[in-house]
Amino acid sequence: MAGFLLRPLRAGDAVGERLAAAEWSLVAEDGDGTVAGWASLRSWTEDDGVHLFLTHGHVRAADRRRGLGGMLLDETEVAAARLSEQRRLGGTVMLGGNADDGQHDRAALLASRGYARIFTMIWMRRDASAVPLRDLPQGIAVRNATVDDAGDLWRLAQRAWAGRPFVTLPPEDRLRDWLRRSDRSSFLVATSGERIAGFVAVHGDEIEDVAVDPDFQRRGLASALLTRALVALGGPARLRTEAHDPAGARTLYERLGFRVATRHHRYRKRLR
Ligand SMILES: CC(C)(COP(=O)(O)OP(=O)(O)OC[C@H]1O[C@@H](n2cnc3c(N)ncnc32)[C@H](O)[C@@H]1OP(=O)(O)O)[C@@H](O)C(=O)NCCC(=O)NCCS
């Protein structure tokens, strides 16, 4: 497109850290040498075997509606196809894009290139109002997590999230690192004898994760863990989950007083 030069990212470009950390990126420069937009790619393989190339891009407000976003997205798709071939990726390879509520330009661009909205992540918030503690199911005790719980927690997560699309669980050593770095006074583990039945992890005002082993679900354990976490927090709380409620988590959070604050839509199309 006339007026813009597409080139690789250079040290000193006025772009965020996220772009610098991307696997692939491209910068659009206007006639003055000012960065007018950029695009990037990150990729990973989800637990169901789908390879995802997540595109991300930005065009500064003054340069919108001139076709630059479309041009950047087209270049990004070409780069994803090249990387997928270089890496000889088998199975399903998808392109992804994100648009928040209110990002109408971004959503329209993705739709114009054949992406479909496939699910929505929501941030939910709860005010500081008191929450009554829910009883623990019979035979269940609660303690703080230790770094040595990493293996059991990893296995529990595998079982709890099994079969869910769009999920990439961290490997065990990353979970161990997470435990090491966490404030373990707000990382609660529920036990039934020697066995870990569930956990809840809190960081600041964010409920980072909650999971219950399938053998212990629908007995009020997540509710008991979450109410303990909320009482310990003693203030407003927030968390992120899937809007379409594949595991009942959204229902659980709503029953504890969480309400949807923002919506973040996920778009995809097949690369091959
Ligand atoms: C979501 C999860 C933590 C719930 O744990 P749990 O101990 O079974 O939850 P509770 O027994 O406290 O459920 C409380 C309420 O939440 C709702 N709920 C929980 N699981 C549900 C399900 N599968 N379907 C529909 N509603 C559900 C119900 O309203 C339930 O009350 P009820 O049993 O009286 O109907 C558990 O299913 C899980 O670990 N899932 C996989 C991991 C996950 O998705 N974590 C959430 C990350 S955002």
Write up what this structure looks like.
- This protein is of the alpha+beta class and 272 residues long.
- It has two domains: 5-91, Aminopeptidase, CATH 3.40.630; 128-235, Aminopeptidase (3-Layer(aba) Sandwich).
- It contains seven helices and twelve strands.
- The chain has helices at 17-20, 68-86, 104-112, 150-161, 172-181, 221-233, 249-255; strands at 5-7, 24-29, 35-45, 51-59, 93-100, 116-126, 141-144, 187-192, 195-203, 206-212, 237-242, 259-270.
- A hairpin with a 5-residue loop joins strand 2 and strand 3.
- Helix 4 (150-161) crosses helix 5 (172-181).
- The longest helix is centred in the first third of the chain and has 19 residues, at 68-86.
- The chain starts with a strand and ends with a strand.
- The protein binds coenzyme A (COA).
- Coenzyme A binds next to helix 4, strand 10, helix 6 and helix 7.
Which descriptors would you attach to this protein?
272 residues; Aminopeptidase; eight-stranded mixed sheet; four-stranded antiparallel sheet; 7 helices; 12 strands; 27% helix; 34% strand; elongated; binds coenzyme A
